[in-house]
TrEMBL record:
Its main location: cytoplasm. One of its GO terms (molecular function) is ATP binding. NCBIfam families: dephospho-CoA kinase. GO terms for biological process: coenzyme A biosynthetic process. This is Dephospho-CoA kinase. The gene is coaE. InterPro entries: Depp_CoAkinase, P-loop_NTPase. It comes from Shewanella fodinae. Pathway: Cofactor biosynthesis; coenzyme A biosynthesis; CoA from (R)-pantothenate: step 5/5. ATP binds at residues 13-18.
């Protein structure tokens, strides 16, 4: 088990996956809440069954998988539906994240959690790392990646805590407005620091 866990977060489109992959290249165990969130609603899962019972079969694609776009659209339009979904999935996701942390073999592990602060999950980690970009960059990167409307991206940004609040809560910040080389040098410096911190934590 890794005794030292870094919680990696950032707004939508900030580059969390890119940063996590670069840490993984350095041999760090990555625990990704988004991957776990997909697993708990996979075909045949209790999570998917309860979603269909609650929202109806229109939440399913033809192949029986979850229609994530339809679900996202539904829950972002209604706060009480979003609360219901969170109360269903968050305990399942948290349980799996902790199990993966127990199984981690690197000196420290990184837990990638998009809504780390929003869902009060910083209590699960020793240290927080925020990936930061400006709002305009956030909007165009997300539109480019997800092929969604600007309105939908702004709704998602508005549903997350503000950039200022996120930065105020961060122990460390990576600026991801620059090129890959700038990103790699920031990550390497943090990696060396986290290795030292993990030695102290043992």
């Amino acid at each position: 088990m890794s005794d030292y866990i870094v919680g990696l977060t950032g707004g939508i489109g900030s580059g969390k996956t890119t940063v996590a992959n670069l840490f993984a290249e350095l041999g760090v165990t990555i625990i990704d809440a988004d991957i776990i969130a997909r697993e708990v609603v996979a075909p045949g899962s209790a999570g998917l069954q309860q979603i269909v019972e609650h929202f109806g079969t229109e939440m399913l694609n033809a192949d029986g998988t979850l229609n994530r776009a339809k679900l996202r659209e539904t829950v972002f339009a209604a706060a009480e539906e979003r609360r219901w979904l969170n109360q269903l999935l968050h305990p399942m996701i948290r349980q799996r994240m902790l199990a993966q942390a127990q199984a981690a073999t690197s000196p420290y592990a990184i837990m990638v959690v998009p809504l780390l602060f929003e869902n009060g999950l910083e209590c699960l980690v020793n240290h927080t790392l925020v990936i930061d970009i400006g709002k305009d960059t956030q909007i165009w990167r997300t539109i480019d990646r997800d092929h969604v409307s600007k309105t939908q991206v702004i709704n998602i940004i508005d549903s997350q805590i503000s950039r200022e609040q996120r930065l105020a809560k961060a122990d460390d910040v990576i600026n991801n407005e620059g090129d890959v080389e700038s990103l790699k040098s920031q990550i390497l410096a943090l990696h060396n620091n986290y290795l030292k911190q993990s030695e102290k934590a043992q």
